[in-house]
Amino acid sequence: MGNPSLHSIHVHPLKAARGFAPDEAVVEPWGLAGDRRWVLVDGSGKVITQRPHPRMALAAAGLLPGGGLLLSASGRTPLTVPVPEPTGTVTVEIWRDKVEGVPADAAAHAWFSDYLGIPVRLVDLEDPADPP
């Protein structure tokens, strides 16, 4: 048996969206830095996935310094999303787990709602010790 090796690694800042392959990645106690720290949720707070919404796989989310996102998708104007101020939280349901998150601004909600054709909210998960 040969030595284990790693040929590439991918970070997905937004769960269910296309990620990117960084030149290097920082491993934190809860996983890769910046990986799956953002999610889309429906009106009841449940996480949106690719299974019922395959267009999610075509949307890209790049990680900005400080933890914000750069969203892009074919035919859409890219959108920069800053880390939201923690003025209030929402409960996010990821499978059977519930975690708290901070909603992004209205422009981010509108960008993804229009892209997917359903009302959604973009949420930054607060505590990286509770990964999705």
UniProtKB/TrEMBL annotation:
Recorded superkingdom: Bacteria
Domain Molybdenum cofactor sulfurase middle: 5-118
UniProt-listed SUPFAM superfamilies: MOSC N-terminal domain-like (SSF141673)
InterPro entries from the UniProt entry: MOCOS_middle
The protein's name in its UniProt record: MOSC domain-containing protein
Source organism phylogeny: Bacteria, Bacillati, Actinomycetota, Actinomycetes, Kitasatosporales
